Amino acid sequence: MQISTLWIAASLFSASLVGVTGYALDRWGSRRVLACALVPYVATIYSLQYANSFGYLVALVALMRFLGPETLMLTANSTVNRWFIAKRGRATALLGVSRLFFYAEPVLMATLIEHNGWRKTYGILAVACGALIALSLVYIRDSPESCGLHPDGVVAYTKLKARPGEAIAEE
Q1: Are strands 169-170 and 160-161 parallel, antiparallel or unpaired?
Q2: Rounded-to-integer distance, Cα 143 and Cα 159, Å
Q3: In whole angstroms, what is the distance from residue 57 CA to residue 55 CA?
Q4: What confidence tens digit (pLDDT) does each residue in 61-74 have?
Q5: Dihedral angle over CA of 22, 26, 31, 35, nearest 10
């Protein structure tokens, strides 16, 4: 009963704040949001190994859910949508395939817990997540235009203009 209460509370908290992430993505872009989430997310995961009460555990899991699945996934989806237009379906499908790792995660976590205990496993997880997010900061860019590129890798886009009520016509 306590675990389901914990998970519901964490999910409600993170869902109630996901709009903040959306606003931040629109205003500052994927790279800045990811950079701002890195340290608090890693610190939250690391702090889980020191959880000594149910209330502290609920607070940490709620923060981890918000900074992790909610913020990181929204950032990934937003970035893919900015970089791809005509090939958005394929790019989103590849992003979905990359999430297959989450199916292997319980086996990996169980193995780590068996060998290191659950507290030390949170420390290991914090370091691994921090390294992966830091690595992604090297490669992520907010938009192709910020790099002098165009969506879908197209070399040159024709500028399209239309007035309200008119069909879009090429120049």
Answers
A1: antiparallel
A2: 18
A3: 5
A4: 999 999 988 899 99
A5: -50
Q: 44 with 10: CB under 8 angstroms?
A: no
* pTM for this prediction: 0.80
What is the amino acid identity at position 166? E
Distance CA 42, CA 64 (A): 9
For the stretch 28-58, what's the b/e string if a residue is b when 16 or more beta carbons lie within 10 angstroms of its beta carbon?
ebbbebbeebbeebbebbbbbbebeeeeebb
How far apart (Å, rounded) are the C-alpha atoms in residues 13 and 60?
11
- The sign one gets for the Cα dihedral 106, 140, 96, 71 is positive
Helix, strand or coil, per DSSP, at residue 128: helix
